[in-house]
Specification:
Rossmann fold; six-stranded parallel β-sheet; three-stranded parallel β-sheet; 2 domains; alpha/beta; single chain; 14 strands
Length: 317
């Protein structure tokens, strides 16, 4: 049975990954490290939780040793658009926390999962069906930290044998947690507005294609790569994974099938548009499929139906 530490368990991915991992490995075997609450109701009672500043290596080491952790999920990061406003803080959180996790993992013999992103690609990367191995020259501090994170993780694996693994997440769409300052957040916000009966103002222009993924698929990827046979992994840090690619008009059309009177207008955010324009339209995830059996379950239509069903059942969305 694994003993898992999640750093960043109160974030967009972490809050839902915590629930999933506890359902698989047991509540007592998953320690949720947080920097800023809130959590879902009953979260603190469900299993061990600890306050951790991931930029402080002593705090991570203390928890790892106390709970005999063998696997660390390091989700500490500041997302793309917010990171551009606070580049120094983004660097310290994105890379400082990773270096700390890797050093603790090296000492305590832990495996480490740290998500990368499509933000690791740049404007000179092939835009369509972006290959697994290609040019990575991002022009955002978020993307730079992700490229450095991939390289650091590979270095710790080849130099000291630390079991590092990673995926390049596309935009993540969740029906539970609210957006956290990412460029792809419009694809979450649009559903909330539709269910509320409110007009949606889209910050990126029509024809802006980006890879997206529904949260259940993202969670499965984070679990399955860590459960995969390490002898079959060639591209440990980091695997392209894909589920769907769409532009604002496509997601708008999918929602209008459920809400015919829904209205979307455009008010372009120059920063978010520039970031989106530097990212791929779609990526090739053949290596993930071949090396550890990656396969998404949700496309745009299936995700839209589920998002709307779940949000309609919730209060105070």
């Amino acid at each position: 049975m694994k003993n898992i530490l999640i750093i960043g368990s109160s974030g967009q991915i972490g809050s839902e990954l915590s629930i999933k991992l506890r359902s698989i490995y047991g509540e007592a075997n998953v320690v949720c490290g947080y920097y800023k609450p809130p959590f879902p109701d009953g979260f603190f009672e469900a299993g061990p939780t600890v306050e951790i500043d991931a930029t402080d290596i002593s705090q991570i080491a203390k928890v790892v040793k106390k709970y005999k952790i063998d696997t660390i999920y390091n989700l500490a990061a500041i997302l793309s658009a917010t990171a551009e406003k606070y580049p120094k803080r983004s660097w310290d959180v994105g890379l400082g926390s990773l270096m700390n996790c890797l050093d603790v993992a090296r000492e305590c013999k832990c495996a480490v999962f740290t998500p990368s992103s499509i933000g690791a690609f740049g404007s000179n990367t092939p835009k369509d069906k972006t290959p697994q191995d290609t040019v990575q020259r991002p022009n955002t501090v978020y993307g730079i930290t992700k490229v450095m994170g991939e390289l650091l993780s590979d270095y710790y694996f080849t130099r000291w044998g630390v079991d590092t693994r990673s995926v390049r997440f596309p935009g993540i769409i969740s029906n539970l947690t609210h957006p956290g300052g990412g460029t792809t957040d419009y694809a979450v916000e649009i559903y909330y507005n539709a269910v509320r009966g409110e007009k949606f103002i889209c910050p990126v222009k029509a024809g802006t294609f980006m890879d997206m993924m529904y949260m259940p698929d993202a969670l499965n990827a984070a679990v399955n790569i860590m459960e995969s046979d390490p002898s079959k992994l060639v591209h440990r840090n980091s695997f392209n994974i894909a589920a769907m690619s769409f532009d604002p008009e496509m997601i708008y059309s999918a929602i209008k099938k459920h809400y015919p009177d829904f209205v979307m207008e455009y008010d372009i955010d120059p920063l978010k548009q520039a970031i989106a324009d530097s990212w791929p339209n779609s990526i090739d995830d053949t290596c993930a499929r071949e090396e550890w059996g990656w396969k998404p379950e949700y496309d745009l239509e299936k995700m839209t139906a589920n998002m709307i069903t779940v949000l309609k059942e919730r209060k105070n969305i």
